[in-house]
From TrEMBL:
This is Cob(I)yrinic acid a,c-diamide adenosyltransferase. The gene is cobO_2. Its EC number is 2.5.1.17. InterPro entries: CblAdoTrfase_CobA, P-loop_NTPase. Keywords: Transferase.
């Protein structure tokens, strides 16, 4: 079967966008494919996926963020620098074409928060090799990104355990 790389987008206000992308990663690895994930705006090695990737030789995860929340409208210059580094790394990975699946986690939020420019992300998409599937995650996907995508899934929050005062759970949120 010939492989056609797609542009997939997970957006919306509900929990599960990164989780869905990680599910794709696991499925791809199960078929012997190579996966590269860049996590924008995240910088904590305690995430379960970071720990799991140590056991999966075909799965590379790089975090390009600080271990703190980014302020929308007034980002720390270091947050901008890290996001730009992540974008440059994504360009390199896509141009080399060595990975079957490339995930840019929270890149939509990086654009919305002003860490990256929409036009830079749009031009990045054009670097994708025909066999590579590119996944963009995060709330606030722009209309242009949505229109370019082959598939868009909107994750909508209906109910969340935070509402009952239950804090973030290891293995669920991180």
């Amino acid at each position: 079967m010939s492989r056609r790389g797609l542009l997939l987008l997970y957006t919306g206000n509900g929990k599960g966008k990164t989780t869905a992308a990680l599910g794709l990663a696991l499925r791809a690895i199960g078929h012997g494919q190579k996966v590269f994930m860049i996590q924008f705006m995240k910088g904590n090695s305690n995430y379960g996926e970071i720990q799991a990737s140590k056991y999966l030789p075909n799965f590379t995860i790089i975090q390009k963020g600080q271990d703190k929340f980014v302020k929308k409208g007034n980002p720390d210059p270091l947050d901008i620098k890290l996001a730009e580094e992540g974008l440059e790394l994504a360009k390199e990975v896509l141009q080399k074409g060595e990975h079957d699946l490339v995930i840019l986690d929270e890149i939509n939020v990086s654009v919305d928060f002003g860490l990256l420019k929409e036009e830079d992300v749009l031009s990045l998409i054009n670097l994708k090799k025909p066999h590579t599937t590119l996944v963009l995650t995060g709330r606030y996907a722009t209309e242009k990104l949505i229109s370019m995508a082959d598939m868009v899934s909107e994750v909508r929050e209906i109910k969340h355990h935070y509402e009952k005062g239950v804090p973030a759970q290891e293995g669920i949120e991180f």
